User: Which sequence fits this backbone?
């Protein structure tokens, strides 16, 4: 059931961010979807499928999303995830969760403490060949 206040944020709009936007729009056609553009210079209109676009963390937080997909460069993942988690926003972070291990344990602990869902997007984990390798170990 889509509620009027159902809101999602996509941080980063490279190829995977655009794929998440298209998939989310297909799965949640009535939801409000905002895009946090990580590079300066916004287009005059939000990208196709998005209802809004933001140039700053403050604007993205004011949108009040229930969940966010972090799809920017890996080097930005923790910097993007920390303030979103602090605001109580559930997170799906594209792999890897961070470019360096420093700070990952703290993010996990923060999300656990707040009761937030924290997931890492990794579509190959369901690959039959990788499942076979895992089963053989």
Assistant:
């Amino acid at each position: 059931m889509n509620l009027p206040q159902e809101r999602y944020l996509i941080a980063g709009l490279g190829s995977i961010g655009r794929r998440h936007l298209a998939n989310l729009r297909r799965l949640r056609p009535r939801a409000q979807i905002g895009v946090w553009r990580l590079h300066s210079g916004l287009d005059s209109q939000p990208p196709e499928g998005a209802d809004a676009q933001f140039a700053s963390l403050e604007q993205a937080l004011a949108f009040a999303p229930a969940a966010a997909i972090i799809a920017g460069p890996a080097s930005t993942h923790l910097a993007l995830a920390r303030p979103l988690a602090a605001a109580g926003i559930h997170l799906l972070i594209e792999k890897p969760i961070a470019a360096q291990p420093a700070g990952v344990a703290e993010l996990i602990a923060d999300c656990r403490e707040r009761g937030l869902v924290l997931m890492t997007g990794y579509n190959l984990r369901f690959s039959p060949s990788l499942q076979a390798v895992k089963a053989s170990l």
